[in-house]
Structure formats: C-alpha cells, structure tokens
Amino acid sequence: MYLYVMILLNGSVPMAFAGTEEPAAYGELISIGGIGPSVNGKLSSTIAEILETKLSIDSSRFYIKFYDVEEPYGPG
Asked: Hey, what's the signal peptide range on this chain (predicted)?
C-alpha cells in the first residue's frame, strides 16, 4: 500500500482573514489515501505548530481543506 501527500506553498500572497490583513494562511492538502478525521486533526496540529514557529502565523489564522482522492491507477 502506498500513501502520498502533496503540499504546495505560495508565499507573499495578499489575503484578508477574519476581517484583518494580519499574517494568515490558507492551504489545501490532497492525499491519495491515508487521511480522515483523526489524521486530519493531527496534521492540523502539526501544521499549526510549523506556521506559528516558522512563519509567525497564529494558529487561529489559518484554514486547511483536506482532500482524500482515490488512487487513479492500479498497483504496480
């Protein structure tokens, strides 16, 4: 069984979040299998910590959309 996760980051994008232009983040996490409610919670916590420590973005100022897509091809 193979699990894949793809993350794309774009910096310096002007955005307003919760009515202010303070630092914020929006993300989409696309996975081919392996994510769900419990995993999403763990990933959100880890991403929040990274955003706070590395980018000074408060954990209340980011939104992540999770997509779990089916494998488009058979094994092999």
From this structure: 1-18
| Helix segments in the chain, DSSP class H | 37-55
3-class SS at 42? helix
Q: Name the residue type at position 59.
A: S
Task: State pTM to two decimals.
Answer: 0.74
* DSSP one-letter string for the chain: ---EEE-----S----BTTB-SS-EEEEEEEESS--HHHHHHHHHHHHHHHHHHH---GGGEEEEEEEE--SS---
Per-residue pLDDT of the chain (76 residues; tens, 9 = 90+): 556 666 677 888 899 999 999 999 998 888 887 888 999 999 999 999 999 999 999 999 999 999 888 776 655 5
